[in-house]
């Protein structure tokens, strides 16, 4: 395996490099022979050129479930991981587990071995495993992780429901419009003009748009791609632009409130798991900041962390941010006063998850007729613009 390493020479000089090793222990020994002291070592991830190299969530769910069953039955971790490695069909995941086994045999704990594969096991995942190891409750932690991953999978399906249908209908509408404008309208254009009629405004606009698409079709096809690439470059190089975009997402009509509920539901569920596993509140909040996926919400959680650090209680800190509704803040206050903060957070997660399901159903019910009306209006405008002049000529001939 290939590792990127940072090491210190005998002279105290920091050295960066890349070296083959079986695991981190082997890497450290090889660097020792080179008279270097290892500081950090990160496994170089090999990305696939074709297809997605990411581990599917169902694979992680099965992994947690089977490892929990083996651990609860008293099977040693190494034996359980070996059995899982031999039974997993996903080649990338099988390779990851093989590396974890080697690292554990080299002296690492399960959480340390998992932490090397940050692209597979998130910081939340690793922290929970570490907490389970230290408390002797690894099977219980694995049960929580299994339920959480199932919940995330369900939440992801709700998110896809919001996007897939509108995207599908929009693609059909754009493809049909493109075909009509480039193929059908030019054929009717000369026929309509040869009638000698004064063309109405909507017909002139239709012919103008058709001419643009016929003459500059490549610009219309390339512009979205170029715009997307430029936008991605700006977002990657300008943190302020990314923050503003994340803020705009939360303000979008219909979709914005649902997105906010999904983010807050994910935060509450993860926070509840971390806190229930015995991880301190401040560390739990700090860990959840990396999983919300929105910089505006992340900055709000940073302010919450700072408020708690300065002596504010949890409920007051969340209330001051203004991100959570009063009902949720009240649930946090009750949970904090009764010592059941993890249960209160799970209730918050349930509250938002149920709200997300209802909101998705409502938005879908609204989007479908709206897209149908838009498609009908667009096609009606095209047909009216073309047929209108022909109908006027026929009417004059009859009179």
Number of E-type strands: 3
Mean pLDDT: 80
What proportion strand?
5-15%
How many helices? The count is 16
Largest sheet: 3 strands, antiparallel
* Low-confidence spans: 47-52
Would you list the SSEs in sequence order as H and E? EEHEHHHHHHHHHHHHHHH
Which structural class fits the helix and strand makeup?
mainly alpha
Distance between the termini: 87 Å
Multimer state: single chain
Q: In percent, how helical is the residue content?
A: over 70%
Radius of gyration: 29 Å
For the biggest β-sheet, the strand order reads 2-1-3
Overview of the structural elements:
The chain is mainly alpha-helical and 399 residues long. The chain is 75% helix and 6% strand.
Topology:
Blueprint: E1 2-9, E2 14-20, H1 24-33, E3 36-43, H2 57-72, H3 77-87, H4 91-105, H5 110-115, H6 123-135, H7 138-193, H8 201-215, H9 217-237, H10 239-251, H11 255-276, H12 281-288, H13 295-309, H14 314-321, H15 326-338, H16 341-398
Helix pairs in contact: 2-3, 2-7, 3-4, 6-7, 7-8, 7-11, 7-16, 8-16, 9-10, 10-11, 11-12, 11-16, 13-14, 14-15, 15-16
